């Protein structure tokens, strides 16, 4: 189906309210999901898209409730499979803007396989993974991003499995856009949501999200306003890696290891961020974790590659340009014979 | 079967036959499928009715000469209407000891047995588990044995050609084919044409195959080995243009026809699995019709993508076999809940678990009917023959779009790989169908149902004003909002069931072949159609009161089924499982149906069903 494009200035400008549904929001009071929902609703009017051309698809989990609250087309599917539905929808309707809302359990555990394949295929989806390092909806079991040794309802003696880093998983799967943000930094989150939407190809955004019931304060150590400047590294393309209230600290590369250089004036020798570099750099950056390092947020990588949806339709168009299908001829193709 | 023996000009006699069944068997590297399909083509062009059955080994290349490496191809051709690839071959071509060992027991008494004597060396005999050479020990006395030095004679025919011994050896399937073409009075023409086209870039191989084919043919003619050759007259088929079609080809063509009739593009999400992969292969060549195919990372992604595509207004479909259906069940249930059209082609194979992937069975019926959590009704259609796959694939889409529901299309390995001549339908024979999406500006509720069909509206993204959310959580009737109200849930469970039930008003009644009432009804579904119909006809030919009927709709059943069942003293249900349809029939209609089951990975033979019919008739004192 082709969409009639209406020049933007002819559209009644949409506001945040246009993206709010009549459904009562049913997350626990104080949940980080409220902030993410609010930022999503704030940036949607700026996308230049009509509501009917936007679709939110989710799996199962607290995060996956989000589509009910956004006044667009929405599909709350089954556990881990949001990306599969989104792939089919986007592949058959490339003109739609398709968002996938998932969580650390939904996207990395039960749906881990689909995440890898959506990334490598570079289908033009906006994937937002709410990472709260816990299973919230099932009331407090450890997730694939829970830290090693974590005590939870299902691990009373501590977890014994190594956590996954969503950013490095996405990079390893050749995602063309990989970014991270935090529920508590609304301005940064809005900026990252916009970049995610603008990227042509698969865009993967991890959002650190606090579950105040089952994993309260999981990111507090570095996301709290008082410590954030010293413990979070805001990645900016083309700029040296600096952090601290006065951006007084820097990061440099020593062999394959990163090291923090405190109170350094000159930018010389500091690592300069390059979103278009080989994924090795982004992967090294993603290895920085609190408390040994400041935690990097922002865009790790942003490169261009043909998208699955475009390639799929190009094959169809090319085939049609070589000769549109003739069903009668197809039925009669190959060896046929007449019976009188 | 033998009607007339008349002398020919030469020393050979020609025997008229109404029906002949031949099986080619050899190592999977011996090119038996090729020999079989070439023989089929020559026979189709001659004008016989045909039914074929390939029998592949599960291994792509099992060790040469081993029993698991044997590949077979059976063709039955007739001057009459035939429905099965034949019970017992009249002739068997065995290219090595393993092929002989695994196939000879099926050959009818006094049947023609052609073997490549050169392959019966000590190594091959040992691989096949023969202690002594069966060509010499008298163990093959029941049959007309023709030990021919196929390999050596073929080498002689290729003398002087600069080909490696391996390439020479590979052409001996054409030598064997040549013999059989001669034996049954078929022309070399279509095979020669095929060789000339296929190997035009490889003149040496082309020449080798032509020489081999002709050498085999002339050997048949000149060697005084065969006393007779056989003639099967042209069949009286309805006039028109014909082609060959296998079940999987017909399925893909049917899906495409549905897409063209409905004016909506196909999105086929699939994960490779035997015996369904051919549908994916076929559809992926239809890009110039706008067909989108997607080879997913797994079975779940394949069906998930199809559901996503259906949400967007495409004809989302997936194809698989039993193990894949198991993996897709949760997603199919989602489609039941969100009431979107979806077609799932289940090309059944022998289970449980991996089972026997290349062998046929009908053991998924209850899985498809009930294998999902909750009350989860779906529509089920089941083609009866390879060419019927075309019509039922279209029908699956008619129902899926009209009733906004997942529809299972249940084929099996036998239908999928079996092929038959097909009178190519005219375009005006295709059913008219249409899709209506919910329109902008009209009153809209996501679960406001059509009064007749109970289908909810199909409101696709891109339609202004119809933004709505669906999902797997229970819906409030009409609004589609999340709803945990107990009465609403009960209402929705009943509505979903009622919607599928109402399809009954929209499908043909079951037709009975034979007396409308009487002693015995033989009822089946899917691929046993041919054997069942033939056995019932045979019984009627002997003056017995035996009817047959084929269920092409398994959920809901046709409206008149209960009345039909009650019109006979006995009901026999042959199926390739332990009585799954019988269980449904007994449960639903309280009819004391007799189950006849076969689970050998092989289709029913006519004789097996005839035998059971006779037993029942004897019990009835007929």
Question: What does the model show?
Answer:
The complex is a heterodimer of chains A (about 350) and B (about 625). In chain A, about 30% of the residues lie in helices and about 20% in strands. Chain A is α/β, with parallel strands linked by helices. Chain A folds into two domains: about 10-240 and about 275-325, Thiamin diphosphate (ThDP)-binding fold, Pyr/PP domains (Rossmann fold), CATH 3.40.50; about 240-270, no CATH class. In chain A, the strands form two sheets. In chain A, strands 2-1-3-4-6-5-11-7 form an eight-stranded mixed beta sheet, sandwiched between helices. In chain A, strands 8-9-10 form a three-stranded antiparallel beta sheet. In chain A, a hairpin with a 5-residue loop joins strand 8 (about 240-245) and strand 9 (about 250-255). Chain A starts with about 30 loop residues before the first helix and ends with a strand. In chain B, helix 4 packs across helix 8 (about 205-220). The radius of gyration of chain B is 27 Å and the shape is globular. By secondary structure, chain B is α/β, with parallel strands linked by helices. Chain B has 20 helices and 24 strands. Chain B has three domains: about 5-230, Pyruvate-ferredoxin oxidoreductase, PFOR, domain III (Pyruvate-ferredoxin Oxidoreductase, domain 3), CATH 3.40.920; about 245-430, Thiamin diphosphate (ThDP)-binding fold, Pyr/PP domains (Rossmann fold, 3-Layer(aba) Sandwich), CATH 3.40.50.970; about 510-620, 3-Layer(aba) Sandwich (Rossmann fold). In chain B, the strands form five sheets. Chain B has a seven-stranded mixed beta sheet, with helices on both faces. The interface between A and B is large, with 62 and 71 residues. Strand 2 of chain A pairs parallel with strand 18 of chain B, so a sheet runs across the interface.
């Amino acid at each position: 189906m082709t969409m009639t494009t209406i020049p933007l200035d002819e559209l009644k400008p949409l506001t945040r309210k246009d993206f709010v549904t009549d459904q009562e929001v049913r997350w626990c009071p104080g949940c980080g999901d409220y902030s993410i929902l609010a930022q999503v609703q704030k940036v949607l009017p700026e996308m230049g898209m009509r509501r009917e051309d936007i679709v939110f698809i989710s799996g199962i989990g607290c995060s996956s409730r989000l589509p009910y609250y956004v006044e667009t087309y929405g599909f709350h599917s089954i556990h881990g499979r949001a990306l599969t539905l989104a792939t089919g929808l986007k592949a058959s309707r490339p003109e739609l803007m398709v968002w996938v809302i998932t969580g650390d359990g939904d996207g990395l555990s039960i749906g881990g396989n689909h995440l890898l394949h959506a990334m490598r295929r570079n289908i033009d989806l906006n994937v937002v993974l709410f990472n709260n390092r816990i299973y919230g909806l099932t009331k407090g079991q450890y997730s694939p991003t829970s830290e090693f040794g974590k005590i939870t309802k299902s691990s009373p003696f501590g977890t014994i499995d190594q956590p996954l880093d969503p950013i490095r998983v996405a990079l390893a799967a050749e995602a063309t856009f990989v970014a991270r943000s935090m529920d508590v930094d609304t301005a940064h989150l809005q900026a990252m949501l916009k970049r995610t939407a603008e990227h042509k190809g698969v865009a993967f955004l991890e959002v650190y999200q606090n579950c105040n019931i089952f994993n309260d304060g999981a990111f507090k150590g570095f996301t709290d306003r008082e410590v954030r400047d010293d413990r979070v590294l805001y990645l900016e393309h083309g700029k040296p890696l600096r952090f601290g209230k006065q951006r007084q600290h820097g990061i440099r590369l020593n062999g394959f290891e990163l090291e923090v250089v405190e109170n350094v004036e000159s930018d010389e020798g500091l690592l300069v961020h390059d979103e278009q570099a080989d994924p090795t750099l982004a992967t090294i950056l993603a290895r920085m974790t609190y408390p040994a390092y400041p935690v990097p947020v922002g865009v790790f990588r942003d490169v261009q590659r043909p998208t699955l949806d475009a390639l799929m339709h190009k094959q169809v168009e090319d085939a049609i340009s070589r000769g549109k299908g003739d069903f009668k001829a197809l039925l009669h193709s190959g060896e046929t014979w007449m019976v009188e | 079967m033998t009607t007339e023996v008349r002398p020919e000009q030469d020393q050979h006699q020609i025997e008229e036959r109404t029906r002949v069944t031949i099986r080619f068997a050899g190592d999977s590297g011996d090119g038996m499928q090729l020999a079989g399909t070439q023989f089929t083509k020559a026979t189709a062009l001659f004008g016989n009715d045909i039914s074929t059955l390939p029998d592949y080994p599960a291994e792509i290349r099992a060790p040469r000469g081993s029993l698991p490496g044997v590949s077979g191809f059976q063709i039955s051709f007739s001057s009459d209407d035939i429905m099965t690839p034949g019970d017992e071959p009249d002739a068997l071509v065995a290219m090595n000891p393993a092929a002989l060992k695994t196939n000879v027991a099926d050959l009818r008494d006094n049947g023609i047995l052609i073997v490549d004597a050169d392959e019966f060396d000590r190594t091959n005999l040992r691989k096949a588990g023969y202690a002594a050479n069966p060509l010499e020990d008298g163990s093959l006395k029941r049959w007309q044995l023709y030990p021919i030095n196929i390999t050596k004679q073929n080498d002689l025919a290729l003398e002087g050609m600069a080909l490696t011994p391996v390439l020479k050896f590979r052409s001996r399937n054409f030598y064997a084919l040549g013999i059989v073409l001669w034996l049954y009075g078929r022309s070399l023409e279509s095979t020669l044409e095929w060789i000339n086209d296929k190997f035009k870039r490889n003149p040496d191989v082309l020449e080798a195959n032509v020489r081999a084919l002709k050498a085999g043919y002339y050997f048949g003619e000149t060697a005084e080995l065969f006393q007779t050759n056989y003639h099967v007259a042209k069949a009286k088929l309805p006039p028109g243009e014909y082609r060959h079609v296998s079940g999987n080809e017909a399925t893909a063509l049917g899906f495409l026809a549905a897409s063209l009739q409905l004016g909506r593009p196909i999105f086929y999400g699939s994960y490779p699995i035997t015996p369904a992969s051919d549908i994916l292969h076929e559809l992926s060549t239809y890009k110039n019709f706008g067909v989108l195919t997607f080879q997913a990372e797994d079975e779940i992604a394949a069906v998930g993508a199809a559901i996503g595509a259906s949400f967007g207004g495409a004809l989302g479909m997936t194809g698989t076999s039993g193990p894949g259906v198991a993996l897709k069940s949760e997603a199919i249930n989602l489609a039941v809940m969100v009431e979107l059209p979806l077609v799932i082609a289940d090309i059944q194979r022998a289970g449980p678990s991996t089972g026997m992937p290349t062998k046929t069975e009908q053991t998924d019926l209850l899985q498809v009917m009930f294998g999902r959590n909750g009350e989860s009704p779906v529509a089920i259609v089941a083609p009866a023959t390879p060419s019927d796959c075309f019509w039922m694939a279209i029908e699956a889409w008619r129902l899926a779009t009209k009733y906004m529901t997942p529809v299972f299309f249940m084929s099996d390995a036998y239908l999928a790989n079996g092929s038959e001549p097909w009178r190519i339908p005219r375009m005006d024979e295709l059913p008219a169908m249409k899709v209506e999406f919910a329109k902008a500006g009209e009153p809209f509720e996501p679960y406001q149902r059509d009064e007749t069909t109970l289908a909810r509206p199909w409101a696709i993204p891109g339609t202004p004003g119809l933004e709505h959310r669906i999902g797997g959580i229970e819906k409030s009737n009409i609004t589609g909002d999340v709803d945990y109200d107990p009465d609403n849930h009960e209402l929705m469970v009943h509505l979903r069931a009622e919607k599928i039930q109402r399809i009954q008003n929209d499908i043909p009644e079951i037709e009975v072949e034979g007396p409308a009432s009487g002693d015995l009804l033989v009822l089946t579904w899917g691929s046993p159609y041919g054997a069942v119909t033939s056995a019932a006809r045979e019984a009627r030919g002997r003056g017995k009161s035996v009817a047959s009927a084929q269920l092409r709709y398994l959920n809901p059943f046709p409206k008149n089924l209960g009345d039909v069942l009650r019109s006979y003293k006995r009901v026999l249900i042959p199926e390739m499982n332990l009585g799954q349809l019988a269980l449904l029939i007994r449960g639903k209609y309280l009819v004391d149906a007799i189950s006849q089951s076969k689970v050998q990975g092989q289709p029913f033979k006519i004789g097996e069903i005839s035998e059971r019919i006779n037993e029942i008739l004897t019990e009835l004192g007929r």
